[in-house]
Amino acid sequence: MALSAIEIYQHLPKTNCGDCGVPTCLAFAMKLAQKQASLDECPHIGEEAAAALDSAAAPPMATITIGDSSKALKLGGETVLFRHEERFHHPCGIAIEVSSDLPADEVTAKAKEINELEYERVGDMYGVDLVAVRDAGNGSFGEAARVAAEAGDLPLILMSDDPSAMGAALEAVGSGKPLIYAATAGNIQEMAALAKEHSCPLAIRAEGLEELASLSGQALEAGVEDLVLDAGAREAGQVLQNETAIRRAALNKKVRELGFPTIAFPVGDSVVEKSLQACNCIAKYAGIVVVDFTDAVGILPMLTTRLNIYTDPQRPPQVPPGVHEIGEPGPDSPVLCTTNFSLTYYIVEGDVSASKVPVWVVVVDTEGTSVLTAWAAEDFTAETIAAAIESSGIEEKVNHKNIVIPGGVAVLSGKTEEESGWNVIVGPRESSGIPSFFRQQGFS
Questions:
Q1: Do 28 and 22 form a contact (C-beta atoms < 8 A)?
Q2: Which stretches of 311-412 are DSSP H helices?
Q3: Which of 10, 20, 259, 418 has a C-alpha 20 to 30 A away from that of 347?
């Protein structure tokens, strides 16, 4: 478990010098315990104390890296079972399979498609993370791995139980630090030797948790420290049980052999069924999910689930406060006001875009909360709106002083007029009403 503030404080110099930015060592210890500061912010910490704190603070689940490009994927390093306790650190990797029985040009085309698979969500671009090349046993595994590696920057998972085929594929891709999948009871020594020789992470596939721990221990004894675990189940209920058991064993019981990220292979009779199982795996607690489709109907739910699960609950996604443009607004364009919660802003943006009316949007810094939540917390008030209007410079961009506030906070209209000197127009309660509201107001 994580160290308490008092346990951390025992290792600090106790000088209360304030050089770390807070007035006392105890206050600094409290920030460290809450993951709001890092140890290197204390300039007076001794080497022995730093080593003790680093060792004690090391996560019970190892962090591993797949790939060596700018798109290398980090997995593991998790410290909690439930994200509200702190947060989840490294988002689940999404991999898509390519079979080696495809002609080389089709492998290239499929790998390029996977590399370019991206979607926009609340202002950011999201895509898959890995290309998984599966050995079809036709002798072309190495060539398929090579052309897949050359098709883009995404890291690879090389999937074969044959050590000789795996060795040939590793030679074919050269550097790149792919994930070797998989070491089993029948090939553990050979696969561990390949992982060590090529400095690659190694995935272990077993038949149940007991065998998984045994094989993991053998890999560790062989000198392979970067492992990914697969307990072998494919049925959804058993996968969920295994994933939960592995996470609990690693975090609560400190079982070193199970202190690694996992890999899951969702199955089903349709893309939708596989995607649903993949979403379950992303939530609890897979480090990688591997699917065999590129259909948006299956990929988008997975990306959205991952975004929701791995967003820090204590730091919601935000857009920068200030003035934003939707369309190409001019001096006569309407001015709207909303909060800087990303989901709120991009819903408003979508509904404004649907109206085809270019607008200015004054975004108030509410630390990433929605309109009603911010109003209840007194972060979205007449005073904060007036301050945002003044600091944004919107008065220099328009030749009027009319601003539309959300209908849900109509109660703020009079006070906002007093504070800002602007004429406040109460808009619709829901942003879906913006197009009709604009028509009623005569905006075009």
A1: yes
A2: 342-355, 371-376, 382-392
A3: 418
* Residue 182 and residue 188 in contact, taking contact as beta carbons nearer than 8 Å: no
Same domain as 422, residue 305: no
- Mean pLDDT for the chain overall: 92
The CATH code of the domain that includes 180 is 3.20.20.20
In the chain, what percentage of residues exceed pLDDT 90? Answer: 77
User: 216-274 pLDDT, tens per residue?
Assistant: 999 999 999 999 999 999 999 999 999 999 999 999 888 999 999 999 999 999 999 99
227/361 same-domain check = no
- Environment class of 290 (CB within 10 Å of its CB; exposed 0-12, middle 13-18, buried 19+): buried
Tokens, residue 426? 């109460």
For residues 111 and 131, the answer to whether their CB atoms sit within 8 Å is yes
**Mapped to the 3 state alphabet, what secondary structure does 261-326 carry?**
CEEECCCCCCHHHHHHHHHHHHHCCCCEEEECCCCHHHHHHHHHHHHHHHCCCCCCCECCCEEEEE
Q: Are residues 110 and 193 in the same domain?
A: yes
Per residue in 66-106, pLDDT tens?
A: 999 889 999 999 988 988 777 888 999 999 999 999 999 99
Return contacts of 378-383, CB within 8 angstroms, 24+ apart: 379/339, 380/339, 380/409, 380/412, 381/412, 381/415, 382/412, 382/415, 382/416, 382/418, 382/419, 382/420, 383/419
Which domain-ending residue is among 310, 335, 353?
Answer: 310
Q: How many domains does the chain have?
A: 3
Handedness of CA 158, 159, 165, 166 (dihedral sign): positive
Q: Are 279 and 305 in contact (CB under 8 A)?
A: yes
Q: Decide if pLDDT at 2 tops 70.
A: no
The whole-number pLDDT of residue 35 equals 66
Give the CA radius of gyration of the chain.
27
Which among 95, 124, 119, 107 has a CA at the least distance from the CA of 297? 119
